[in-house]
C-alpha cells in the first residue's frame, strides 16, 4: 500500500471512530424503539396479558386485520384530508404573507416577530387557545356572532366543521414556518432580476410567476415536505378539541393508535397501526426527496 | 412530728438495695427500646404508592405525617393526572413490576387487574388477627362499592376510598315551579321537563359530557336492555337490542334538543360549571359532581337547587355507581407495610376526620355515613345527601349487580364504540338503529381481535 493509501485508510478509521458515539446514541434512541415497535406489532400484546408480549405464533395477524378495520381505513382518509388541506393552506398563506412582509420597515420587522409566536408555543397551549376560541359559552367569536343575531354551530362537534376547525388551528400554528422559510428565500433573490423585468415592461404578476416563483419553488417544496411529515403529529389539537369526533370524523391514525394502546390496551395491534403509519410517512418523504432530486437533475 | 418521725422510721438504705434499685432502674430504662422497636416494626421502610390526583389524597397527605410518626415508615405517594396514572399503573402492573407497594385500583380497570391476577389477595391480611384488628371490620365498607374489587370466587383485591353514585342535580327549581313542573321521576317526565325549561331565561334543559359510556347505560338498562348479554359470565355485546336502540334515541334526543351547543365536546368540568351557574337545569352524574350545586361556594344556584335520584326507566331503575379502591400489587416489595397504610388510610377514624374536618363526604365506610355527624354535615335545605348517596351506592349489591357490565375487562372496548355511536346519532350522521347495529358489529369484531372468547 502506498503512503497516500495508508493515510486514507487511517483517515477512514479515524472517521469511523469519531462517528461511533453518535451512531451508538442514535441507535439506542431511534433504532431500538423502532425495532421494539416492530416486534410488538408481530404479537397480540395486551397489557393485561403479560405472556402475550412474547407470543410470535401468528406474526402477521395484526397486519392482516388492518384492511378490514373500518376505523383504521377511515383514520387514513381523515389524515389524508387533514394533511392535504392543512399543508396547502400553510404553504399558500405562508407564501402570501412572506411576499407581503418582504419589505424594509420597523413595523414590518415587528410584525414578522409577532407572526412567529404561534409556532413557538407548545402544541398543547395552542390546543387550549383554540379550545377557548371554539367553546360557544365563552368564545369571543360566538359572542360577536350573537350580537349580530347570527347563530353559529358548535364548530368542533359539527359534522361539517369539525375537521375544518382542526385545519384552521393547525394552519394558525404552522403557517409561520412556511412564512419564515419563504421570507428567507425571498431575501436571497437579487433585486436586479425584478428590476430588469420591470424595465422590460413585466407586470407584478409576471415578475412573481417568472422571477420570484422559480427562486422560491424549492423552498416551497421543502416546506411542504416538512409540514406534510409534521402534519401526522396533529395529536394535541385532536385530543383536546374533538377527541376524534363527532363519531370518527376527526380521528386520525395516530389518535386511533393512541386509543388502541391506552384505552383498550391493544399494544400489539396499536403497534401494527403505528408501523404502517411510519412506513407511509417514510414513503412520502422518500417520494418527495426523489422528486426534488429529479427536479434538480432536470434543471 | 410527723416529719421527724418519718425520718427516724425510715430504714437505712443499704448498698445492696441501692445496687438493686440501680439495676432495676437501668432495666426499666432499657426495656422501652425493644418495646419501641416492636411498636414500629416498619421503621426505615419507604412505602411507594401511586394514584391519580384526587381531593381524597390531597387531604390524606395532611395526615400522613401522623402515620409516619406512628409506624416509622416513610410514605412516598405519587399523584398524577387520571389518564396518566392509569397508563403508568397499567404498564407497571402488567409488566410484573414492583415499583409500587400500594396503588389505586381504578374502577374501570379493576376487573381487568383482578382477573389478570395483578393484585394481592387482601383477604390474607383481613383474615389474620395479627395484621387486622377486629374493629377495622372489612364488612363496614358499603357493599355496592366493594363489588368491583372481588373476583369470581369472592376474594377481595381492594378496599374502596371513594364512592360515586349517579344523582340528578336540578339548578332552577324556581323556573320549574313557575311552570308548574315537578321533579321528574320517569324518563318520560325527564323529557317533558327538559322540553318545558329549555330556552326559558336562557337556560338549557339538560347538560352532559363526553363520556357517554357512563351516562348512557342507565337509560339502556332503564328501558330493559343491557350492554352485555349477561355480564360477567356472558360478555357478548347486545348493543343493537331494541331496548338499547330506544335508549340511544332517547338520550341523543335530550342532547340534540335540550343541551347547550357543543355539548358533545363538554368535559365534566364544563358540564358542572354549566349546572353551578344555572345555565343548564339538569345534570345527571356522580354525586361528587352534582352535589356542589348545594355545597360549593362556586354555586350561584344554591337556593334554587335540588339533588335527587335520577329518573327511573319504564322497565328498571338503574342509576350508575362506581368506586375507587386501594390495593397492593402482586409483586410489591413491602406488602405488610402497604397493608398497614391501607388499613390506616381507610380506617373509620380517618374517614370520620375527613368528613368532620374537610366535609369530604364521598367515603365508603357505612358506620361513618350513617353517623349523626355525617348526617348533620350533609343535610342541605332539608335534603339528606348522605342517605341518597348510600341508597344509590348500595343498589348494585341488592339483587342483580347491574353494574357488572362496567367491571368486566371487555367494557372499555365496547364503551369506546358506544361513545362513537351516540355522537353519530346526536349529529345526525346515522339513525339510532344504524348506529347501534354498526356499534354491535364493531364491538364484536374488536373483542374478537382482542382475543375475547364470545
List the helices and strands and how they pair.
The complex is a heterodimer of chains A (299) and B (454).
Chain A (H helix, E strand, L loop, with lengths): L2 H39 L19 H5 L4 H31 L5 H15 L2 H12 L5 H8 L14 H25 L4 H9 L4 H28 L3 H7 L11 H10 L4 H32 L1
Chain B lengths: L1 H8 L5 H16 L1 H8 L6 E7 L2 H17 L2 E7 L1 H13 L7 E4 L1 H9 L7 H4 L16 H4 L12 E12 L2 H6 L8 H11 L6 E4 L4 H4 L1 H6 L5 E3 L3 E4 L4 H17 L9 H9 L3 E7 H4 L1 H4 L10 E4 L11 E7 L7 H11 L2 H11 L7 H4 L2 H6 L1 E2 L2 E2 H10 L16 H16 L5 H18 L5
Parallel strand pairs in B: 1-2, 1-3, 5-8
Antiparallel strand pairs in B: 3-10, 4-8, 4-9, 4-10, 6-7, 11-12
Brief rundown of the structure:
Chain A is mainly alpha-helical and 299 residues long. Chain A has helices at 3-41, 61-65, 70-100, 106-120, 123-134, 140-147, 162-186, 191-199, 204-231, 235-241, 253-262, 267-298. Helix content of chain A is 74%, strand content 0%.
Per the principal axes of the C-alpha atoms, what is the gross shape of chain A?
A: flat
- Summed up, the helix count of chain A is 12
Instruction: Write down the overall mean pLDDT of chain B.
Output: 89
If you average the pLDDT of chain A, what whole number results? 90
Greatest interface and its participating residue counts: A-B, 37 and 42 residues
Do you know the CATH architecture of the largest domain in chain A? Orthogonal Bundle
CATH homologous superfamily heading of the largest domain in chain A: MetI-like
**What is the distance, rounded to the nearest whole angstrom, between the alpha carbons of the first and last residues of chain B?**
100 Å
The CATH homologous superfamily name of the largest domain in chain B equals Periplasmic binding protein-like II
Overall radius of gyration of chain B: 28 Å
**Helix and strand element order of chain A:** HHHHHHHHHHHH
Q: What would you call the structural class of chain B?
A: alpha/beta
Q: What fraction strand of chain A? A: under 5%
Largest sheet of chain B: 8 strands, mixed
Question: Structural class of the helices, strands and pairings of chain A?
Answer: mainly alpha
* Overall number of domains of chain A: 2
Amino acid at each position: 500500500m502506498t503512503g497516500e493509501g495508508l493515510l486514507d485508510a487511517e483517515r477512514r478509521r479515524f472517521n469511523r471512530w469519531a462517528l461511533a458515539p453518535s451512531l451508538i446514541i442514535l441507535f439506542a434512541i431511534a433504532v431500538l424503539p423502532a425495532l421494539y415497535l416492530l416486534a410488538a406489532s408481530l404479537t397480540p400484546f395486551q397489557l393485561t396479558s403479560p405472556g402475550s408480549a412474547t407470543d410470535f405464533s401468528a406474526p402477521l395477524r395484526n397486519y392482516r386485520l388492518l384492511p378490514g378495520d373500518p376505523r383504521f381505513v377511515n383514520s387514513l382518509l381523515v389524515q389524508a384530508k387533514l394533511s392535504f388541506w392543512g399543508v396547502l393552506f400553510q404553504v399558500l398563506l405562508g407564501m402570501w404573507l412572506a411576499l407581503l412582509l418582504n419589505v424594509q420597515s420597523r413595523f414590518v420587522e415587528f410584525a414578522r416577530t409577532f407572526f412567529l409566536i404561534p409556532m413557538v408555543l407548545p402544541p398543547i397551549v395552542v390546543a387550549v387557545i383554540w379550545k377557548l376560541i371554539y367553546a360557544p359559552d365563552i368564545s369571543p367569536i360566538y359572542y360577536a356572532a350573537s350580537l349580530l343575531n347570527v347563530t353559529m354551530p358548535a364548530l368542533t362537534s359539527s359534522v361539517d366543521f369539525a375537521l375544518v376547525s382542526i385545519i384552521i388551528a393547525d394552519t394558525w400554528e404552522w403557517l409561520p414556518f412556511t412564512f419564515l422559510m419563504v421570507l428567507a428565500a425571498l431575501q436571497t433573490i437579487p433585486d436586479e432580476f425584478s428590476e430588469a423585468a420591470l424595465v422590460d415592461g413585466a407586470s407584478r404578476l409576471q415578475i412573481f410567476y417568472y422571477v420570484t416563483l422559480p427562486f422560491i419553488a424549492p423552498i416551497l417544496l421543502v416546506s411542504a415536505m416538512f409540514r406534510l411529515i409534521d402534519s401526522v403529529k396533529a395529536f394535541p389539537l385532536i385530543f383536546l378539541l374533538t377527541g376524534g369526533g363527532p363519531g370518527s370524523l376527526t380521528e386520525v391514525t395516530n389518535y386511533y393508535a393512541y386509543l388502541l394502546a391506552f384505552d383498550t390496551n391493544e399494544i400489539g395491534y396499536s403497534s401494527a397501526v403505528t408501523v404502517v403509519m411510519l412506513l407511509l410517512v417514510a414513503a412520502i418523504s422518500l417520494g418527495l426527496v426523489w422528486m426534488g432530486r429529479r427536479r434538480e437533475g432536470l434543471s | 412530728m410527723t416529719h421527724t418521725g418519718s425520718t427516724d422510721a425510715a430504714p437505712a438504705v443499704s448498698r445492696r438495695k441501692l445496687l438493686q434499685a440501680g439495676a432495676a432502674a437501668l432495666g426499666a430504662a432499657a426495656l422501652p427500646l425493644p418495646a419501641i422497636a416492636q411498636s414500629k416494626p416498619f421503621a426505615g421502610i419507604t412505602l411507594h404508592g401511586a394514584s391519580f390526583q384526587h381531593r381524597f389524597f390531597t387531604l390524606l397527605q395532611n395526615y400522613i405525617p401522623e402515620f409516619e410518626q406512628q409506624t416509622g415508615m416513610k410514605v412516598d405517594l405519587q399523584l398524577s393526572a387520571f389518564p396518566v396514572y392509569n397508563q403508568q399503573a397499567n404498564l407497571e402492573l402488567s409488566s410484573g413490576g414492583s415499583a409500587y407497594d400500594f396503588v389505586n385500583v381504578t374502577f374501570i380497570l379493576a376487573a381487568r387487574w383482578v382477573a389478570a391476577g395483578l393484585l394481592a389477595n387482601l383477604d390474607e391480611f383481613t383474615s389474620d388477627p395479627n395484621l387486622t384488628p377486629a374493629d377495622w371490620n372489612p364488612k363496614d365498607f358499603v357493599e355496592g362499592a366493594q363489588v368491583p374489587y372481588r373476583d369470581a370466587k369472592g376474594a377481595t383485591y381492594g378496599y374502596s376510598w371513594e364512592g360515586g353514585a349517579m344523582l340528578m342535580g336540578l339548578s332552577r327549581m324556581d323556573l320549574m315551579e313557575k311552570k308548574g313542573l315537578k321533579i321528574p321521576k320517569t324518563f318520560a317526565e325527564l323529557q317533558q321537563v327538559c322540553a318545558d325549561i329549555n330556552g326559558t331565561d336562557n337556560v338549557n334543559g339538560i347538560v352532559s359530557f363526553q363520556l357517554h359510556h357512563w351516562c348512557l347505560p342507565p337509560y339502556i338498562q332503564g328501558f330493559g336492555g343491557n350492554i352485555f348479554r349477561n355480564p360477567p359470565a356472558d360478555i357478548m355485546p347486545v348493543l343493537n337490542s331494541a331496548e338499547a336502540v330506544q335508549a340511544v334515541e332517547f338520550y341523543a334526543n335530550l342532547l340534540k334538543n335540550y343541551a347547550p351547543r357543543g355539548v358533545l365536546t363538554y368535559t365534566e368540568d364544563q358540564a358542572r360549571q354549566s349546572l353551578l351557574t344555572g345555565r343548564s337545569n339538569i345534570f345527571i352524574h356522580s354525586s361528587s359532581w352534582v352535589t356542589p350545586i348545594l355545597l360549593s361556594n362556586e354555586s350561584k344556584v344554591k337556593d334554587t337547587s335540588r339533588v335527587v335520584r335520577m329518573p327511573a326507566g319504564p322497565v328498571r331503575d338503574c342509576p350508575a355507581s362506581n368506586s375507587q379502591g386501594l390495593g397492593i400489587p402482586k409483586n410489591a416489595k413491602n406488602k405488610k407495610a402497604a397493608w398497614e397504610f391501607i388499613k390506616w388510610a381507610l380506617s373509620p377514624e380517618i374517614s370520620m376526620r375527613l368528613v368532620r374536618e374537610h366535609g369530604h363526604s364521598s367515603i365508603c365506610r357505612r358506620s361513618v355515613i350513617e353517623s349523626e355527624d355525617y348526617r348533620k354535615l350533609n343535610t342541605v335545605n332539608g335534603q339528606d345527601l348522605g342517605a341518597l348517596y348510600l341508597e344509590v351506592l348500595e343498589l348494585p349489591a341488592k339483587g342483580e349487580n347491574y353494574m357488572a357490565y362496567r367491571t368486566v375487562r371487555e367494557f372499555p372496548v365496547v364503551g369506546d364504540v358506544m361513545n362513537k355511536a351516540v355522537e353519530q346519532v346526536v349529529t345526525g350522521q346515522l339513525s339510532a338503529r344504524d348506529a347501534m347495529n354498526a356499534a354491535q358489529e364493531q364491538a364484536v369484531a374488536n373483542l374478537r381481535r382482542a382475543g375475547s372468547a364470545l
